[in-house]
Specification:
The protein is α+β, with helices and mostly antiparallel strands and 186 residues long. It contains two helices and twelve strands; from the N terminus they run αββββαββββββββ.
Length: 186
């Protein structure tokens, strides 16, 4: 019965996502994880100025609210990485969802909820790539104008997890997120 309920929720999600996402999500069966949600990375144009690389991407959208994403995470909660889940920024103006991509070692973050008029639900906020260092990620962070900056992120903390996206080299304040769900103690 639980499997049928999960399957029904997933079918509804696929219908909703199929109608509202660009590019289309891909759902695949995997051993140990019955379903996986991923977003194909849209084409991009790169510009390098000195050591800073700026990229302009076609926007990707994932039209999913927090409760729906939480149900999606619950399908394989034991198999989630430390980065995957629901996070909110320290100013409590934005809530994001982070999920594994289909590509090994890659994750994407999208906006679940925002009070910022320049950000809207479903927009891609960042893409993370694992590095050889534990809890350190190479990160593409997207500005309000949808241009990307290449930087790094780090997960730290005991009792509560903090994700910091470092933007100090660009004379911007770093972005800090606190993990909301699932609560994982390191």
């Amino acid at each position: 019965m639980k499997y049928l309920r999960t399957l029904a929720i997933l079918i509804c999600l696929l219908f909703i996502l199929g109608c509202a996402i660009a590019p289309q999500p891909e759902v695949e069966k995997k051993r140990g994880n019955p379903f996986s949600l991923s977003v194909a990375v849209p084409p991009k144009v790169s510009l390098s100025i000195g050591s800073t690389k700026i990229e302009k991407k076609q926007p990707a959208y994932i039209d999913m609210d927090e409760e729906t994403f939480k149900e999606f995470l619950n399908i394989d909660i034991e198999g989630l990485s430390l980065l995957e889940g629901i996070w909110y920024n320290d100013k409590k103006t934005i809530t994001i969802g982070i999920r594994k991509s289909r590509n090994k070692g890659k994750y994407f973050a999208f906006i679940l909820e925002s009070t910022d008029p320049d950000s809207r639900q479903g927009e891609l906020l960042a893409e993370f790539t694992e590095t050889r260092y534990n809890h350190v990620f190479s990160t593409e962070y997207y500005w309000e104008n949808k241009s990307a900056v290449i930087t790094k992120s780090h997960i730290s903390g005991k009792g509560k997890l903090d994700l910091t996206i470092f933007l100090l080299t660009l004379d911007k304040e770093s972005v800090n997120f606190i993990k909301k769900y699932p609560i994982t103690y390191q």
